[in-house]
Amino acid sequence: MKDGDCLQILKSLIFLLAGQFLVLLAHGEVHYYDFVLKETNVTKLCVNRTILTVNDNFPGPVIRIHKGDTVFVNVHNQGYYGVTIHWHGVKQPGNPWSDGPEYITQCPIEPGSNFTYQVIFSDEEGTLWWHAHSDWTRSTVHGAIVILPKEGTSYPFHTPDGDEVLVLSAWYKVGDLYDELDEAIKSASDLPHSSGYAINGELGDFSNCSSETTNHYTVEYGKTYLLRIVNAVVNAELFFAIADHNLTAVGMDGAYIKPINSTYIMVSPGQTIDVLFTANQSPGNYYMAVRQFSSENPSVTGFDHSLGSAIVEYSGGEYNSSSSSVNYPHNLPQNLDMKSGREFVNRIRSLDSEDYPTSVPTNITTRMYITVSMNVLCKNSTSCSEQAMGNMLATSLNNISWVNPEMDVLQAYYRNISGIYTEDFPDFPSIMYNFTSDYDDYDLNLVVTNQATKVKVLEYGESVEIVFQGTTLLQGSVNHPMHLHGHSFYVVGLGYGNFNNETDPQTYNLVDPPKVNTFGVPKSGWLTIRFTANNPGVWFWHCHLDRHMTWGMNTAFIVKNGGTKESTLRPPPSYMPTCTGSSATGHIRTRNSVDDEGKDKSLHSLPLYG
């Protein structure tokens, strides 16, 4: 028997023993899953591609549990390069070791090896999701998490007659997405746009070579269904609608909201929305469809114009969805419909009921004002000429563009290893200016960013308020869906233009603000969130547009231990992956990634998942 085989068996035994032990400790049920990651040939849009999948499926398997359960997922990496999995929106109390972002809480799982995640659920209820957290690997490695109410309890609305998971994904027609991604970073150009949008893996009738595989969903007249919608798209907010039908949004990001009746929804990358849909129209066939909502300037940045679709079929009729009788979704907003996008977002409120109360922090102990910006990195470290050829596109938070360290931040923090990160992430921008002015010039004092691995340290129990301020630098104003790991946060305010510290706080909603883990900083506007830092560990936060995360719009919180066992970071598993040069997948820039000639020294030459 080979040493590697022995190691695999040992890890499996550890996995099983840990699981049996925790059955005794967990408040809910304990579940076990095996995820096998490997390359799979898939044909879409008339082109065959090799993509990384989980258990040969795109999207991957649905995890279905009850509130408060614990899940063990043994991830076997049979791909070619390192990968990690993130459990998006799961707070993982005291257990950041299983949160998943590479070089933040762990090193990648090496090819030919495995790692068992312990996913601890607490107060989450509704729909969340999981995805790869290694570069753009999540474009094909993702799936839904369904969290049912605790046994013996029910929904805060009439129990639906059925539910359906709808994972919305982007599809890239290019032969090798990651070669294009690699080349775009090397040439300092924009990153590739998708070729189509899929509903549960299929693009539908409006895409080439796709009609035969269009998904069909059968409904019965008069019945109500719960649609669990996940935006797993890498770089786009989406509109969703069903032709001629009303939708009622009742949940978001694993929490309930006040019902929103609408003919459409808007969902940002990383967000999940639970929607009730009643089959109350004339029996027939109706398209459900998704279309990109683009808040960007179309003359600066292009976008995917495609329409992803599936068909809702009423049962018992004598109609045929292969004919021209499928009703078109005229109620689906157009790509650039800012009014519809804003109107939906502005209606979101927490349920705030006796069973699901809000708990908005009021005595704020830490205040931060964070600019989210498009930037450039200079061609070399000493000079940066105006719009110089070779200057590299970048993004930043308070003019700091994140670079991955050589080992994960969590391990360095836990073992008190110096030189991996610094604890001086700024609470405020270094330069105050008119953030939302129409900048036609190329002011080097504003657009050039600094690379660093800076984190913000919080005491346990601190009440934190962050104002995110959008900017218009490089004509890059766009909605930024910001995601915080390990916590949910309350969105207490949002607006347009520059934040006014005297008048805007008077508009805050402290009664029933949305409680979410991902929410958009509006284009040329601001967003205020509040949360309590009550989960010890290292927690990543970043823009969930992967093109912006790739360029550096990320950082991390370190939440220190509290004074009790429950508020103390647990020790790491003995079988955590170790960082090696071969594990790097390298599109979030690593330290010292730009040399004196302006060439990105990240490990671009390594092929990535495609």
From TrEMBL:
Cofactor: Cu cation
Main enzyme class: oxidoreductase
Location, primary (coarse class): secreted
Cell compartment(s), UniProt: Secreted, Extracellular space, Apoplast
Details of cofactor binding: Binds 4 Cu cations per monomer.
Region (Disordered): 567-610
The keyword Lipid metabolism appears for this protein: no
Catalytic activity line of the entry: 4 hydroquinone + O2 = 4 benzosemiquinone + 2 H2O
Feature: compositional bias, Basic and acidic residues: 592-603
GO biological process: lignin catabolic process
Annotated EC: 1.10.3.2
Keywords, comma-separated and alphabetical: Apoplast, Copper, Glycoprotein, Lignin degradation, Metal-binding, Oxidoreductase, Repeat, Secreted
Keyword Signal part of the UniProt annotation: no
InterPro entries, per the entry: Cu-oxidase-like_N, Cu-oxidase_2nd, Cu-oxidase_C, Cu-oxidase_fam, Cu_oxidase_CS, Cu_oxidase_Cu_BS, Cupredoxin, CuRO_1_LCC
Domain Plastocyanin-like: 38-151, 165-316, 430-561
Cited function: Lignin degradation and detoxification of lignin-derived products.
Family the UniProt entry places it in: Belongs to the multicopper oxidase family.
Protein name: Laccase
Annotated source species: Trapa incisa
